[in-house]
Structures are given as structure tokens and as C-alpha cells.
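BUG-454 | component: ligand-complex export | severity: low

The export step for flavin-adenine dinucleotide jobs runs without errors, but we want the raw record kept on the ticket for reference. Input record follows.
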Amino acid sequence: MNLIHEQARDIPVLAETDLLVTGGGPAGLAAAIAASREGVNVLLMERYGCFGGVISQVGVEGFAWYRHEKTIEAGGLVPEFEQKCAEIAGSNPECQSLSQALDAEMFKYVADVMIEEAKVRPLLHSAAVQAIVEDGIIKGVIAEGKSGRFAVLAKRVIDTTGDADIAAFAGAPYTKAPKDKLMSVTTLFHCKGVDTRRFRDYIKNELKPTYRDWGGYWSIKTSGKEDDLFSPYFERPFVEAVQNGLVPKEANVSLGGSWSSITDEGEVTQLNVVFIGNVDCTDIEDLTRAEIQGRRNALYCVEVLRKKVPGFEKAKLRNFGMTLGARESRKIEGRSFLTAEDVMGEARFDDAIAIFPEFIDGAGYLIKPTTGRYYQIPFGCIVPQKIDNLLVAGRSISGDQIAHVSFRNMACCVATGQGAGVAAAVSLKEGTPSSMVDIRKVQQALKRQNVRYY
Ligand SMILES: Cc1cc2nc3c(=O)[nH]c(=O)nc-3n(C[C@H](O)[C@H](O)[C@H](O)COP(=O)(O)OP(=O)(O)OC[C@H]3O[C@@H](n4cnc5c(N)ncnc54)[C@H](O)[C@@H]3O)c2cc1C
């Protein structure tokens, strides 16, 4: 690759703050709100024009599609997000759980309101591009936006970029699977103009979908108790469309997927049927290829739905997500490492900052938390090695592939985000480095914030 030398230059310091949270998805929102409630000054930086991450930028609405009667979960900001959506935006019944699906568009506004109420300083349209590190301690980040390049200095930083961007820029060790082993990326889309009565009849009388159906194209293992539960999943229309040439083979359209809600306005939301593999979502050339291929494949899928699925005859695309949805990239090598055995074995840790139900969705497994089993997440999983005063929350915390497909779920990202926010605030107030924070004081503060970490 050709290289050029970039000249060193002075850049403005836009802000100095106690805590900088980079990335405004489920984890970042939770980290910023939780820390601010502990009384520290927080700035939340986000590269796009809205907060919400995968919810509002990709269109994922199934915030808690794992929830059944006996499910035990973390509380704290997880139900608060849901309540706020119900109050402000209205939500739609999520069809495979006891939850409501969040309205992805309205969540942009819900997030604004929550940030304002928590007195967090928002900074949109600002992409962090470098970490400022001195003697192994993070001091802030360099970011870029329409105003050019600038710095934000902070006593503590939380990386909630999903891709562990800040940890990687800072030189903290991380892992990233080879791209043919990473989870697929998805162009999510929503349809309008569906005859929902006909679609519901088709689901009830013909499709009769259950989680067992995932065992076709996806080769998913369940724990057995999931097999006969309803799942909003279809693959037959897509398999037939490829066999019949309705979709060209080279289009590489995947052969099954799910929807989230069916609304009274004739919408079917969160159509999660376009999967593109071999994409490293930290590589802009891969991202460009996948964005373009994803939109084309989504339109093939709309055509398949119109031709093959009762109720969709006059349906149209309502919208694509504003960006591709990425499921997996970098994960930090933390002080602790969460494993499949921890997730499936109800692990307990002295330094727990959150719990999450035994819910696994990916890496060949689908296990739903119908029995009340849950695991704890240790503080050590959000503490990177080598760089202090930096915590990492959300889908890029430290763990193996199976643990990842559990903790990547949005409600768990909220839980680790809240844990990180509270830990950063306690470390600021106590004057200890974030890696050395008194975990008992963090747990007490989490309890005051109605988090169940035990
Ligand atoms: C297609 C798809 C379907 C899914 N379905 C479900 C589901 O039904 N239920 C569920 O619970 N989970 C689902 N997931 C998983 C879940 O949505 C994600 O794992 C979760 O949103 C991760 O949260 P996060 O806060 O870690 O990261 P994200 O939601 O990715 O948020 C990261 C934020 O950081 C910003 N950012 C990134 N880099 C920078 C930077 N350098 N500077 C500034 N800002 C930056 C991003 O713009 C974004 O706002 C799905 C994921 C995908 C892709």
C-alpha cells in the first residue's frame, strides 16, 4: 500500500470532561445516563446524527425478544428504556416474547429525551479517530466531523463503539476472528402495505413457524424446550425463489430469517432476512461492498415476499436501516474472559456488575431463558489490559464466541453499559484508576440504580 506522511498540527480542544463515552448505542446511552446520575460530568460522542446505535441506525426493534414468564434479568435501565419508549413513542407487541418491540424511528427521539433529562452533554456527527494516551493512561480522544479535527479530554473514557475502536486506537490488546468466521452482517428493512389479516392467517394456518424451523438452513441447536415455541421465522419462500430462479443464484440471497412486529398500519418490521458473510466491519472496502450488495438483496427479498407470501402482494419497501447492521468485530482481551461454560453454567463472580438470562442466539445455538437461569458478568470483562482509565462496554467486551452471542444482545449491552458508567463514576469520585475501583462501592451504587447484579 502507498503511504504518505501526514503533517503534525495543532487542533482545538472542544471540551474537557470528567467522563467521555464514545458511541451512543444501547451500551453508550446506558453508560452516559448511569454515570451522570452518579453526579459526574459526562459527554456522549456519536459518529452519526442520532443516538440509539443498532436500534435507530439499523432498525433492530426486538430489544428483549428473549423474555418469558420466568426470565430473570438485570433491571436498571433495561426496563427504563422500554417504559420510556412506551410513554413517548408507543411500542408494538413483539410477537415471540412478553416484550414490546421498540419503534426504531421514534427511539431517536426517546434517546434525545433520556440524554437531556440525565443532563448528559450530547455531541453528534463526531467520529472518534484516535486515542490520546500518556504512559498507559487514556486522556481523551481525537475526533473528526464537519468542523474538522478536534480533541475531547477526559479523566475517564468508556468505549461503546461496538467495534472497540478506542481500545484498538489506544493499543489495548483485542481479538478479531478471521472475516470468514465473523458473524454475517445484515441490511435490515421494513415493509409497508401488507394485508396483515392475510399474513396472519398464513402464519397460523400454513407456516406455523417454530424455533425448530431454524434447524433447516441455519443448523441451529436448541436445548429442546424451544423446539415447539412460536418463532416469527420463514425460509420456504426464499428457498423456493432461489430454486425457481426468481432470485439469481449469484445474488447470494440467504435462505431464511425473521420479522419482529406486524402493525395495525400494515407494516411488517425488522425483516432480518439478508445475511452477508465474509465482511470485516472495521474495513471500509468490505463495508462499501456489503452496503451495496445488502440493499440489492433486500429488494430481491421484497420481490420474493410479494410473489410468495400471502398478504405481501401489494407490499412495498418502507425503509432500509440507515446503515448496515454489524454483529461482531473486535473484542477486547479483558482482565476476565467470559466463556460458553459461564453462560450455560449460571456462572457467579465476586466482582459482578450485571446479570443476563441464559439466552444464546447465534454460533449454532438458540437457547431461550424460559426457566429463570441466568449468569453474572464480571467487572473484569470490561477492563482492557495495558490501558487504564478506559472501560469497554457493549458487544465488544471480553469473551469467547458463544458468550459473545449472548452478551451482544441489546439488553445485555445496556446492562454492561450501566455497569461501566457507574464504575467510571465511582472511580472518579474515589480518585482511584478505573481498573482499581472498589467493586463493593460500584455494586452499592448499582443497587441504588435498581440494577440486579446478583
Ligand atoms: C441485523 C441485526 C439484528 C439484531 N437483532 C437483535 C435483536 O433482535 N435483539 C437484540 O437484543 N440484539 C440484536 N442484535 C444485536 C445488537 O443489536 C447489538 O449487538 C447491540 O446493539 C450492540 O450494542 P452496542 O451499544 O455495543 O453497539 P451499537 O449498537 O453498534 O452502538 C455503537 C454506537 O457507536 C457509534 N460509533 C461507532 N464507532 C464510533 C466512533 N469511532 N466514534 C463515535 N461513534 C462511534 C455507532 O454509530 C453506534 O451508535 C442484532 C444485530 C444486528 C446487526
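Assignee comment: Attached the raw record above. The domain at 13-177+330-448 is CATH 3.50.50.60 (FAD/NAD(P)-binding domain).
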